[in-house]
Fold this sequence. Notes:
The complex is a heterodimer. In chain A, strands 1-3-2 form a 3-stranded antiparallel beta sheet. Chain A starts with a helix and ends with a helix. Chain A has 7 helices and 3 strands; from the N terminus they run αααβααββαα. Chain A has helices at 5-13, 18-26, 31-42, 50-57, 61-73, 94-106, 110-124, and strands spanning 47-48, 77-82, 85-90. In chain A, α4 (50-57) packs across α5 (61-73). The longest helix of chain A is centred in the last third of the chain and has 15 residues, at 110-124. Helix content of chain A is 63%, strand content 11%. Chain B is an alpha/beta fold. In chain B, 33% of the residues lie in helices and 26% in strands.
Amino acid sequence: MATNGDDFTARLMDDMDPALLDFVKARVNSFIKWDLVRFFYENPHTADTVENIARYTGRNHAALKPEMEELIISGVVQKREVEGTPIYSLADDDEVRELVGRFVVACEDRHFRVKAVYHIIRGMH
Amino acid sequence: MERVPTGIKGLDEMLFGGFLPQTANLVEGAPGTGKSTIGMQFIYNGIAQFNEAGLIITFEEFPQQYYHDAARFGWDFRKLEKEGKLKVIMSSPEVTRLDVESVGGAIETSVNEMGARRVLVDSISHFERLTQDRVQLRSLEFSFINGLKRQGLTALLTRESPALLGETSEPDSSIAFMVDSYLLLRYVEIESTIHKALLLLKMRGSDHAKDIRQFEITGQGVEVRSKFEGREGIMSGSPRRMVDSFVEAFVKR
């Protein structure tokens, strides 16, 4: 059977650490989430409101909030309330932090970045 | 008397051994005078020399900037964080204030888990954006400082001063009255060269050096040197030689 071009590309793009592939597909599935993950990796003890984190990352807070909420559902970010104010921070879970670190370090490789971008764009459609 | 040494060459001598425990200590200066460096050094030396874990609370500068700046002096903040001896926390004044005042907040948890004894707040000036009301601002700052003390922390608070040289007009904050010690950093112009001067304006509950010292930021951090000799008007930013003042006052008549 002839190899379909799309299948070949898909297999090529899936060629990465399975844990990172799953992380990209299921958790960092948008560019805003990617920014947030990188921001929390570089500034791991940040704890603030979504408005302030939007300011730190140079994003519109209305666009950032739903992405942040999805990162909470996927366990990357945690939310707590201080006197009724929701405060967001990177999850304390060591495994999550280790995975975030591996993802950001892997992104230094151009080939990995291309694959991650491919999966994010595919996930958007 | 028990002290919390900064470990900064020359500064502890001015402080007669160091800050007093569980006090709030203000370092004020213009941009680039070395406020954050003194703060980082206070925290780093606490960990490296005195086995006291520390926190850095930043309201504007990104933690990654601290990691980078600290590395210039050979201080590996990322490693210290991994070892549980340091946390560089980025937040806003409104969230930090609520956190410090609440029971079981993130800062209290960090203090309990890490055994933190020192904190750098960089900078307290950002509290001024919480309210335009001076009375309310004083109340917010007072409550925040007491919250830090309650947790057993010795705090170093930085404060921005807009003036590069000379006296500043007093901003709305009255924090200088609330803190236990007040360290002023100034640029000084002497013969077309900018020097840095340091003065310990007050230290509640202890005697301290009253002279104006020169200091430099070296590859190892801040080093406080000798006092300015033979000059007056140092804190004006443009000191004059005392001999010139003498000539003007008594000879040119």
